[in-house]
Amino acid sequence: MTVQSAQEAPRGTAPLATAPLGTVRSLRRVFPLIQGAMPRLIIGMIIALAAAATALTIPLALRWLVENPLATGDVAQILPAVGLIFILGLAEVTFIYLRRWLVLGPGVFLEGKMRNSIFIHLQKLPVSFHDSWQSGQLLSRAMGDISTVRRWISFAFVQLFTSTIMLIAGFSVLFAYNGLLGLIFLVASLPLIVISLRFQRRFTKLARSTQDQQGDLATTVEESVHGIRVLKSFGRAGEALEEFLDQAAILRGTELAKGRANGQMWFWMLLIPDVGFAIALPLGIYQASLGNINVGTLIAFFATAALLKGPMQSIAPMMSMSIEAGSALNRYYDVMNTPIEILEVRGAQEVPAGPGALVFEDVHFRYEDSPADHADLLDGVNLSIAPGETMALVGLTGSGKTSLTALTTRLFDVTGGRILIDGIDIREVTIDSLRSRVAMAFEDATLFSISVRDNVLLGREDLTDSTDPALQERAGAVLDQSLDVAQADFVRSLPLGVDSVIGEEGLNLSGGQRQRLALARAIAMEPSILVLDDPLSALDVTTEAAVEKALRQVLATTTALIVAHRPSTVMLADRVALLHEGRILDVGTHSELLARCPEYRNVIASLEEEKR
Amino acid sequence: MSVTGVRGEERSDFTVNEGKALRQRSLSLLGSLLHPVRVRVYFTLIIVVISTAAQVAGPALLALGIDQGLTQVLDNNNWLPAELIVVAYILTALVSSSMMAIYMRSSALISQTVLLDLRERVFTHTQNLSMSFHENYTSGRIIARQTSDIETLRELLDGGLSSLFRGILLITFTAVALVALDPSSALPLLVALIPCYFLTRWFSDTSKKQFREARTFSARLIVQFVETMTGIRAVKAFRREARNEASYAIGVDDYKEANRKVIRLFGTYDPGLKVIGVFTLASVLLLGSFRVANGAMEVGVLLAAVLYTRRFFEPMEELAMFYNSFQNASSALEKVSGMLEEKPTVLEPEFPTALVHPRGSLDFNNVTFGYNSSSVVLPNLDLHIPAGQTIAMVGTTGAGKSTLAKLVARFYDPVEGSVELDGIELTQIANADLRRTIVMVTQESYLFSGSVADNIGLGKPGATPAEIESAARAVGAHDFIMRLPEGYETDVNKRGGRLSAGQRQLLSFARAFIADPTVLILDEATASLDIPSERLVQHGLQTLLADRTAIIIAHRLSTVAIADRVLVMEHGDIIEDGSPEELIAGTGKFASLHSAWRDSLA
Questions:
Q1: Of A243, A307, A394, B88, which residue is 20 to 30 A from B503 by alpha carbon distance?
Q2: Does residue B147 contact residue A138 with C-beta atoms inside 8 Å?
Q3: Does pLDDT of B593 surpass 50?
Q4: How far, in Å, are B50, B209, B273, B462, B595 from residue B203 at the CA level?
Q5: Could you give the CA distance from residue A100 to residue B541 in angstroms, rounded to a whole number?
Q6: What share of chain B is helix, strand, coil (3-state, %, to 5)?
Q7: Beta pairing, strands A438-441 & A358-365
Q8: pLDDT of A172-225, one tens digit each?
Q9: How far apart are CA A182 and CA A171, in angstroms?
Q10: Across the interface, which of A224, A295, A397 has its CB nearest the CB of B533?
Q11: CATH classification of B362-601 is 3.40.50.300, yes or no?
């Protein structure tokens, strides 16, 4: 399981999630992604070969020009001969242009496709996945790794192919010229295979490490920006920098190791063919002196062998590029192959319209990575909320209230028991319809850097996307009403009113303002079930009172589950449920519980009351 | 419009002067990055020269071996020249391959040193920039600057150096050799430089624009990606997936198209240079052929001239590729240098006044403040807080409480007037002193990845485990921490380390506790606590705050009970000021708030 091994990895090194695949096997995984583009790539390769072949004919034409018209002085033939060379030159350039054009498409197409797919998959992966993966690791996969694969397809892939063809053809020609010399050349090149394999093993590890370390670095960068207030407030920029530099130095170390490995590879790649030459040269001369080979053939042999140096030398960089691309693909598939655990059953229906009764039946829940000896966080929760009823959920910090609310929209799935809406298990309906019936407001009010209006009407695509004037009018009405209930009319005094774009994460609004917008967002859904996680915690007393008053009207007709820390919030509810050690210990009105439940008194009673 | 700093970052339609200014800024950044490694750059260049020479020598020796060595063996049965040539060949091969290995290491060292330097600069600068910058600049873009933009520089450094130098080397040598051989054959080459120049200028201008666009689009993608993944709960709960998918796809498409244009541009530029090469070669050949036919030129000279002309254009591809990655990197550096150009508005004093034994008295003298010129949050604030006093601030959202707190924490400086600590203006206090003395805990309790202990220890670098535990005990966080799978060593992002908002707040409290500041500001820091936790925190606060100055912003009036003095704010003014008892007994706003609150407890 990928996530599991991600957690096994020590801090500072990122997950090596899948078992290491060979480079070729890793790279093969790119083909399903570029199926439609294969013809273009293959034509591109053929054209690349044509370009190489054309380039080879130019010296021949030149030789003919020198040997024939120039030697004979036949001026009339000069013009056609030069013309031919000119045309061959233009043909080569045309082929190069065509190859670039043909290969460009598949490369950028692949890049776009992979980038969209990973984003789509990440959005579908459950919250538990996002909780356990460092965000920088995801970002580095979506940006850097995918670009690496694109570059490989656009450059290395075709060149690897043409180099291989040229090498095979070249070696065949060498053998045709002289079997013995060809064999020597081939045998001399054999150590390259061993060296390449060793290089591949070493470089594969290094390539993966640098990519993982880049992800770690991205995580640190993200945190240093998102946590800027804390760092500033404690004056810890220096410490943050130190940690960042430590990580950057680790990355630098790995990159340098890559440089060394590359240097070594290049060393052998350049040296070994030359050793082949150095052995073949005296042997060839000896053979020629014996008369086994004529001088012309010997010259042709070495001329051809010299031509092969180019493709042979290109193998080293192509290998490192391919290994990096293979590793980048592995990292991509680490995410793409993570199963989406929260799925709809086959043939799931929409949640039928109903009054909105919410029932928890022997609900168990534990985070998948919590230690085996820990009891379930929710250990058999039974709670029934009648249609239109408002239930407050009270419990100590860390008792699982937030987790319980997250289960209602299947942000996490129960690990035992079931949750029913109007008698239907929420795992049997479509997730989309479930989430449109149940609206949530989270304790940390995440807002997006879009306009206030779009933030509040986030869950109302049915209204906002419509061009029907009636629905648009309705969108405006819903917006106004939600803002009114949440006492969020401060947005109207923003420079652009409800069209003002919120700074990222809503940070140029105060905590109370953000919370009110998040509340407005939940209300704007006009859900049949409203789940609010401590929705008024950041509000001042006056605003809280005003929100409560307005909220009562909404709650009168809506089933609601409200996590509450304060008596004032509990006051909104018809009944209160006390979550204690994973179970609902007691349910009743506030005063009933105060009277009969000591645990409840402990959780909710204020300092003053206790003194009394 | 201005292009100073990060302004104009999203545009790519710059005027000539703007473009020049940007390019200038980016190049001077590149220059300053390369300066410290210049010795190694020279060293590497020498390596490139030797390795190029050895690579050129190899084929020449081979030719010599066949010409001379073979003839000597065949004619005189003299093996000596052949043997010498083989030895020389092996030697040059060794030299050329070792030089290549050294070059690879050396250029990696240059590129990694430069990258580390740049990373450090950008990171440090980002941390130094004031809150006014961070609150208005999308964090995703800062991330883009520090990740993908820096990566483009790496592409340039990794491959560029050798191809640039080798290219120039080969071109120069070839040109010199051609002129020496036959000046009139060099004429077409000279003429060819004219279209080359114009083609390069066209590529330069067009690609600049495209590369800028590509950087902008890439940053946009990063912004959206980071925001979606950070807010994944809300994305899912409000079924934002499809909408995000569509808008991300547009971003991907923009970036893809920008990339396509950039690559196609190069796919035109490079063959363009080659076409010029073909024309030049044909001209040299044609002119030469007639001269040979007329007997004015030797065939050998013509062949050599043709060969040189070809060789002259061969390295052009490498040079063009260098120029391509150079254009890419300088567009990225334009953005990076823009961020580096942003000046922190809250500056550290050049000659700070030492803060030896801070006592913690605070003064606001006629302070006027607004986040921008059009709106004033604090019109004119005068306030004295004696050392050791605990202040509770009450008032509706937007009354200016948080703003006042931010001014004390020096996240911002007042527009007019001054804030003083122990009679010293905050602007005159060194950052380290200030941060040691004044600490602010906000409602948003950010945790960094790492263990629980790491997160508490952030308040006091080098804190011992015992200190960390006692801080946690003091705020009542010890018990829940011990229930975590690995206690204080539990990773806050992993292994059941998911903490509730209340638990996170307790950790930030412990963080402040261990920092042991003289002045503590709590901005809504207890909002998510449940009552028992709040009780514990309050108990801890009473001991903690006994001998220090504190400003507590709280909506829970229960917190106010521990204050010595209550300030009620409205529209940036202090409308009530007194001890809690006085104010409750009075008839003002606080009294009515308090009675409403008492009622709500029933």
A1: A243
A2: no
A3: yes
A4: 32, 10, 11, 55, 75
A5: 69
A6: 65, 10, 25
A7: unpaired
A8: 888 888 888 888 888 888 888 899 889 999 999 999 999 999 999 999 999 999
A9: 7
A10: A397
A11: yes
What is the number of alpha carbons within 13 Å of residue B412 lying toward its C-beta?
A: 22
Reported ipTM: the value is: 0.89
Check residue B494 and give its pLDDT: 59
Cβ neighbours of A442 in B, within 8 Å: 233-234, 237
Q: Tokens for A224? A: 């240093």
Closest CA to B415 of B450, B444, B380, B382: B380
Q: At what angle do helices B241-294 and B183-230 cross, to 10 degrees?
A: 170
Residue type (1 letter), B302: L
Return the domain boundaries, chain B: 16-341, 362-601
The shortest CB-CB distance from B101 to any of A264, A406, A411 is to: A264
**CA–CA gap between residue A31 and residue A16 (Å, rounded):** 23
C-beta atoms of A369 and B495 within 8 A: yes
Q: What SS3 class is residue B11?
A: coil
Question: What is the distance between the alpha carbons of residues B164 and B177, in angstroms, rounded to a whole number?
Answer: 20
CA nearest to A307 within chain B? B59
Question: Which CB contacts under 8 angstroms, 24+ apart, belong to B291-298?
Answer: B292/A70, B293/A69, B293/A70, B293/A73, B293/A75, B293/A78, B297/B182
Tokens of residue A283, six digits? 């042997």
If you ran DSSP here, which 8-state letter would residue A564 be given? Answer: -
Contact B261, A167 (CB under 8 A): no
Residues of B in contact with A90 (CB under 8 A): 275, 278
CB-CB under 8 Å, A232 with B411: yes
**Residue A342: pLDDT over 50:** yes
Percentages (nearest 5) of helix, strand, coil residues in chain A: 65, 10, 25
- Rounded distance between C-alpha atoms, residue A429 and residue B159, angstroms: 55
Give me the residue from A234, A259, A295 closest to B70, CB to CB: A295
**How crowded is residue B38: how many other Cβ atoms within 10 Å of its Cβ?**
11
CA distance B228 to B222: 10
Element (H, E) at A572: none
3-state secondary structure B65-106: HHHHHHHHHHHHCCCHHHHHHHHHHHHHHHHHHHHHHHHHHH
- Homologous superfamily of B16-341 in CATH? ABC transporter type 1, transmembrane domain (1.20.1560.10)
Strand partners, B383: B364
Domains assigned to chain A: 24-336 (1.20.1560.10), 358-611 (3.40.50.300)
Q: What CA–CA distance (Å, rounded) separates B228 from B219?
A: 14
CA distance A487 to A516: 7
Average of per-residue pLDDT across A493-498: 82
Do you know the residue count of chain B?
602
Distance in angstroms (rounded) separating the CA atoms of residues B552 and B560: 8
Q: Mean pLDDT throughout B166-179? A: 87
